[in-house]
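Data deposition worksheet. Section B asks for the primary sequence of the deposited chain exactly as it was used as input, without tags or linkers unless they were present during the calculation. Section C holds the resulting structure in token form. Section D is free text for depositor observations; keep each observation to a single sentence. Incomplete worksheets are returned to the depositor.
Section A, Depositor: J.P.
Section B:
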Amino acid sequence: MEELQSLLHAVMERIDMQSASIEQIKTDISDLKKNLNKVEQKVDRIESHVNGMKQMVGMIKEELSSIDRSKERLDQVLIEEENWQEQITQALALCSKEKKNQLKNIIDQHVG
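Section C:
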């Protein structure tokens, strides 16, 4: 009978230890849930920042495209101006001194 009581006592101690372990596991799970919620909130903030950055990148790409178009237009205008100057230089080379002075005056008035 005493042996049975010892065995029963040992089983009860084991159950108490397992209950304590279960309670610790429950506490750990609760802590993990809290930490998981914090991580999820941080991920949400990061996603929000990433979305904002994507929008900024899109706007920057649009601006760069606009700048490229403006540069192309300015390059074309520059080429046209260079061609015009070349034609004037050639015309001046063929003209008399009096005509050159007249053309220079006209050009100065045009350029301004």
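Section D:
The mean pLDDT is 90.
Residues 2-111 form one domain.
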